[in-house]
Automatic annotation (TrEMBL):
<keyword id="KW-0805">Transcription regulation</keyword>
<dbReference type="InterPro" id="IPR012318">
    <property type="entry name" value="HTH_CRP"/>
</dbReference>
<dbReference type="Pfam" id="PF13545">
    <property type="entry name" value="HTH_Crp_2"/>
</dbReference>
<dbReference type="InterPro" id="IPR014710">
    <property type="entry name" value="RmlC-like_jellyroll"/>
</dbReference>
<dbReference type="GO" id="GO:0003677">
    <property type="term" value="F:DNA binding"/>
</dbReference>
<dbReference type="GO" id="GO:0003700">
    <property type="term" value="F:DNA-binding transcription factor activity"/>
</dbReference>
<dbReference type="InterPro" id="IPR018490">
    <property type="entry name" value="cNMP-bd_dom_sf"/>
</dbReference>
<dbReference type="InterPro" id="IPR036388">
    <property type="entry name" value="WH-like_DNA-bd_sf"/>
</dbReference>
<keyword id="KW-0808">Transferase</keyword>
<dbReference type="GO" id="GO:0005829">
    <property type="term" value="C:cytosol"/>
</dbReference>
<keyword id="KW-0804">Transcription</keyword>
<feature type="domain" description="HTH crp-type">
    <location>
        <begin position="142"/>
        <end position="215"/>
    </location>
</feature>
<dbReference type="InterPro" id="IPR036390">
    <property type="entry name" value="WH_DNA-bd_sf"/>
</dbReference>
<keyword id="KW-0418">Kinase</keyword>
<keyword id="KW-0238">DNA-binding</keyword>
<feature type="domain" description="Cyclic nucleotide-binding">
    <location>
        <begin position="10"/>
        <end position="100"/>
    </location>
</feature>
<protein>
    <submittedName>
        <fullName>cAMP-binding domain of CRP or a regulatory subunit of cAMP-dependent protein kinases</fullName>
    </submittedName>
</protein>
Length: 222
Protein backbone atom coordinates (compact mmCIF):
# COMPACT_ATOMS: atom_id res chain seq x y z
CA UNK A 1 0.00 0.00 0.00
CA UNK A 2 1.70 3.16 -1.20
CA UNK A 3 1.95 6.36 0.85
CA UNK A 4 3.87 8.35 -1.78
CA UNK A 5 1.59 11.00 -3.33
CA UNK A 6 0.66 10.24 -6.91
CA UNK A 7 2.04 12.61 -9.55
CA UNK A 8 -0.42 15.40 -10.34
CA UNK A 9 -2.56 14.90 -7.26
CA UNK A 10 -3.54 17.83 -5.04
CA UNK A 11 -0.77 17.53 -2.44
CA UNK A 12 2.00 17.36 -5.05
CA UNK A 13 1.02 20.85 -6.24
CA UNK A 14 1.40 22.47 -2.82
CA UNK A 15 4.45 24.06 -1.25
CA UNK A 16 5.77 22.70 2.05
CA UNK A 17 4.26 25.64 3.92
CA UNK A 18 0.87 25.08 2.26
CA UNK A 19 0.96 21.38 3.16
CA UNK A 20 1.89 22.15 6.76
CA UNK A 21 -0.99 24.63 7.07
CA UNK A 22 -3.43 22.19 5.43
CA UNK A 23 -2.62 19.33 7.79
CA UNK A 24 -2.62 21.67 10.79
CA UNK A 25 -6.22 22.58 9.93
CA UNK A 26 -7.37 18.96 10.02
CA UNK A 27 -7.14 15.73 11.94
CA UNK A 28 -5.87 12.26 10.94
CA UNK A 29 -8.37 9.47 10.25
CA UNK A 30 -8.17 5.79 9.32
CA UNK A 31 -10.60 3.44 7.55
CA UNK A 32 -10.48 -0.30 6.98
CA UNK A 33 -10.83 -1.87 3.55
CA UNK A 34 -14.46 -1.77 2.43
CA UNK A 35 -15.40 1.11 4.73
CA UNK A 36 -17.63 3.88 3.38
CA UNK A 37 -15.85 7.19 3.86
CA UNK A 38 -18.69 9.40 2.66
CA UNK A 39 -22.05 8.67 1.05
CA UNK A 40 -23.75 10.18 -1.97
CA UNK A 41 -26.54 12.52 -0.86
CA UNK A 42 -25.12 13.19 2.61
CA UNK A 43 -24.71 16.77 3.78
CA UNK A 44 -21.28 17.40 5.33
CA UNK A 45 -18.67 20.11 5.12
CA UNK A 46 -15.29 18.39 5.36
CA UNK A 47 -12.75 17.37 2.74
CA UNK A 48 -10.33 14.46 2.86
CA UNK A 49 -6.71 14.43 1.79
CA UNK A 50 -5.55 10.84 1.29
CA UNK A 51 -2.15 10.04 2.75
CA UNK A 52 -2.11 6.28 2.05
CA UNK A 53 -4.31 3.67 0.39
CA UNK A 54 -6.71 3.83 -2.54
CA UNK A 55 -10.43 4.54 -2.75
CA UNK A 56 -13.14 4.30 -5.38
CA UNK A 57 -15.48 7.17 -6.10
CA UNK A 58 -18.87 5.94 -7.27
CA UNK A 59 -22.49 6.85 -7.84
CA UNK A 60 -25.66 4.81 -8.29
CA UNK A 61 -28.19 4.93 -11.09
CA UNK A 62 -31.94 5.05 -10.46
CA UNK A 63 -31.96 1.31 -11.14
CA UNK A 64 -29.49 0.75 -8.31
CA UNK A 65 -26.43 -0.23 -10.35
CA UNK A 66 -23.08 1.21 -9.33
CA UNK A 67 -21.09 3.46 -11.65
CA UNK A 68 -17.43 3.84 -10.66
CA UNK A 69 -16.32 7.38 -11.46
CA UNK A 70 -12.67 7.20 -10.42
CA UNK A 71 -10.01 5.43 -8.41
CA UNK A 72 -7.93 7.81 -6.29
CA UNK A 73 -4.75 7.31 -4.30
CA UNK A 74 -2.32 9.10 -1.97
CA UNK A 75 -2.25 12.87 -2.32
CA UNK A 76 -5.80 13.11 -3.64
CA UNK A 77 -8.32 15.67 -2.43
CA UNK A 78 -11.85 14.33 -2.01
CA UNK A 79 -15.13 16.06 -1.18
CA UNK A 80 -14.15 19.54 -2.28
CA UNK A 81 -17.37 20.16 -4.26
CA UNK A 82 -19.65 19.72 -1.25
CA UNK A 83 -17.30 21.67 1.01
CA UNK A 84 -17.33 24.65 -1.35
CA UNK A 85 -20.96 24.82 -2.53
CA UNK A 86 -22.66 23.33 0.56
CA UNK A 87 -24.73 20.91 -1.52
CA UNK A 88 -25.12 17.17 -0.72
CA UNK A 89 -22.30 14.80 -1.63
CA UNK A 90 -22.34 13.97 -5.34
CA UNK A 91 -20.69 10.54 -4.93
CA UNK A 92 -19.84 7.78 -2.49
CA UNK A 93 -16.20 7.18 -1.51
CA UNK A 94 -15.25 3.64 -0.44
CA UNK A 95 -11.89 2.31 0.79
CA UNK A 96 -10.46 -0.27 -1.61
CA UNK A 97 -7.74 -1.07 0.92
CA UNK A 98 -6.82 0.27 4.38
CA UNK A 99 -6.84 4.04 4.03
CA UNK A 100 -5.36 6.91 6.01
CA UNK A 101 -6.00 10.59 5.51
CA UNK A 102 -6.55 14.00 7.02
CA UNK A 103 -10.03 15.53 7.24
CA UNK A 104 -10.33 19.31 7.07
CA UNK A 105 -13.60 21.00 8.07
CA UNK A 106 -12.84 24.65 7.38
CA UNK A 107 -11.53 24.10 3.87
CA UNK A 108 -13.05 27.36 2.64
CA UNK A 109 -11.11 29.19 5.35
CA UNK A 110 -7.91 27.48 4.24
CA UNK A 111 -8.52 28.55 0.63
CA UNK A 112 -9.28 32.11 1.78
CA UNK A 113 -5.87 32.25 3.48
CA UNK A 114 -4.05 30.60 0.55
CA UNK A 115 -5.18 32.28 -2.65
CA UNK A 116 -2.67 30.45 -4.83
CA UNK A 117 -4.15 27.12 -3.77
CA UNK A 118 -7.67 28.36 -4.59
CA UNK A 119 -6.60 29.18 -8.16
CA UNK A 120 -4.81 25.84 -8.49
CA UNK A 121 -7.91 24.03 -7.23
CA UNK A 122 -9.98 25.71 -9.95
CA UNK A 123 -7.53 24.31 -12.51
CA UNK A 124 -7.85 20.82 -11.01
CA UNK A 125 -11.65 20.97 -11.06
CA UNK A 126 -11.50 21.95 -14.72
CA UNK A 127 -9.27 18.93 -15.33
CA UNK A 128 -11.81 16.64 -13.65
CA UNK A 129 -14.58 18.00 -15.87
CA UNK A 130 -12.46 17.44 -18.97
CA UNK A 131 -11.72 13.88 -17.82
CA UNK A 132 -15.45 13.24 -17.32
CA UNK A 133 -16.10 14.48 -20.86
CA UNK A 134 -13.37 12.20 -22.19
CA UNK A 135 -14.91 9.17 -20.49
CA UNK A 136 -18.33 9.98 -21.94
CA UNK A 137 -16.75 10.02 -25.39
CA UNK A 138 -15.10 6.65 -24.66
CA UNK A 139 -18.44 5.09 -23.82
CA UNK A 140 -19.84 6.10 -27.18
CA UNK A 141 -16.77 5.50 -29.34
CA UNK A 142 -15.07 2.40 -27.86
CA UNK A 143 -16.27 -1.18 -27.53
CA UNK A 144 -16.14 -2.87 -24.12
CA UNK A 145 -12.69 -4.38 -24.72
CA UNK A 146 -11.34 -0.96 -25.66
CA UNK A 147 -12.77 0.61 -22.50
CA UNK A 148 -11.41 -2.19 -20.31
CA UNK A 149 -8.00 -1.84 -21.96
CA UNK A 150 -8.09 1.91 -21.31
CA UNK A 151 -8.84 1.48 -17.61
CA UNK A 152 -6.19 -1.25 -17.18
CA UNK A 153 -3.67 0.97 -18.95
CA UNK A 154 -4.53 3.81 -16.58
CA UNK A 155 -4.04 1.56 -13.54
CA UNK A 156 -0.76 0.19 -14.91
CA UNK A 157 0.62 3.65 -15.56
CA UNK A 158 -0.44 4.97 -12.15
CA UNK A 159 0.16 1.97 -9.88
CA UNK A 160 2.17 -0.56 -11.87
CA UNK A 161 5.49 -2.00 -10.73
CA UNK A 162 8.04 -3.55 -13.10
CA UNK A 163 8.58 -7.26 -12.52
CA UNK A 164 10.51 -9.56 -14.88
CA UNK A 165 9.88 -7.34 -17.88
CA UNK A 166 6.15 -6.98 -17.18
CA UNK A 167 4.07 -4.43 -15.26
CA UNK A 168 2.32 -5.83 -12.20
CA UNK A 169 -0.72 -4.03 -10.80
CA UNK A 170 -2.19 -4.99 -7.44
CA UNK A 171 -5.73 -4.43 -8.62
CA UNK A 172 -8.04 -3.40 -5.75
CA UNK A 173 -11.14 -3.66 -7.98
CA UNK A 174 -13.41 -6.67 -8.40
CA UNK A 175 -14.79 -7.50 -11.85
CA UNK A 176 -18.11 -5.97 -10.77
CA UNK A 177 -16.32 -2.73 -9.88
CA UNK A 178 -14.32 -2.79 -13.10
CA UNK A 179 -17.62 -3.21 -14.95
CA UNK A 180 -18.98 -0.16 -13.14
CA UNK A 181 -15.87 1.78 -14.17
CA UNK A 182 -16.23 0.90 -17.84
CA UNK A 183 -20.00 1.23 -18.16
CA UNK A 184 -20.43 -2.46 -19.08
CA UNK A 185 -21.90 -5.62 -17.61
CA UNK A 186 -19.78 -8.03 -15.57
CA UNK A 187 -20.19 -10.63 -18.31
CA UNK A 188 -18.95 -8.20 -20.97
CA UNK A 189 -15.93 -7.27 -18.84
CA UNK A 190 -15.12 -10.95 -18.25
CA UNK A 191 -15.23 -11.53 -22.02
CA UNK A 192 -13.03 -8.48 -22.63
CA UNK A 193 -10.43 -9.67 -20.10
CA UNK A 194 -10.42 -13.08 -21.75
CA UNK A 195 -9.85 -11.44 -25.13
CA UNK A 196 -6.91 -9.43 -23.78
CA UNK A 197 -5.45 -12.56 -22.17
CA UNK A 198 -5.81 -14.54 -25.41
CA UNK A 199 -3.84 -11.82 -27.23
CA UNK A 200 -1.05 -12.21 -24.68
CA UNK A 201 -1.42 -8.63 -23.50
CA UNK A 202 -2.30 -9.34 -19.88
CA UNK A 203 -2.43 -12.02 -17.23
CA UNK A 204 -5.04 -11.86 -14.48
CA UNK A 205 -5.35 -13.27 -10.99
CA UNK A 206 -7.24 -12.52 -7.80
CA UNK A 207 -7.30 -8.71 -7.60
CA UNK A 208 -4.18 -8.36 -9.72
CA UNK A 209 -3.26 -7.83 -13.34
CA UNK A 210 0.11 -8.35 -15.03
CA UNK A 211 0.55 -6.40 -18.26
CA UNK A 212 2.98 -8.22 -20.57
CA UNK A 213 2.65 -5.81 -23.50
CA UNK A 214 2.04 -2.17 -22.56
CA UNK A 215 2.27 -0.95 -26.16
CA UNK A 216 -0.14 -3.64 -27.36
CA UNK A 217 -2.57 -2.72 -24.58
CA UNK A 218 -2.19 0.96 -25.51
CA UNK A 219 -3.03 0.19 -29.14
CA UNK A 220 -6.09 -1.83 -28.11
CA UNK A 221 -7.18 1.01 -25.84
CA UNK A 222 -7.16 3.35 -28.84
Amino acid sequence: MSSTPEPGEFVTRLTEDEITALYAAGRPRKWERGATICTEGDVSDWVLVLTSGRVKVSSHTEGGSEVVLAVRGPGALLGEFAAIDGLPRSATVTALEPVEGVTIRDFSGYLHDHGRVAVMLMQMVTGKLRDADRKRIEYGAFDTTGRVATRLLELAERYGEMSNGAVRVALPLSQDELAGWTGASREAVSKALRSLRDRGLIETGRRRVIVHDMEGLRKRAR
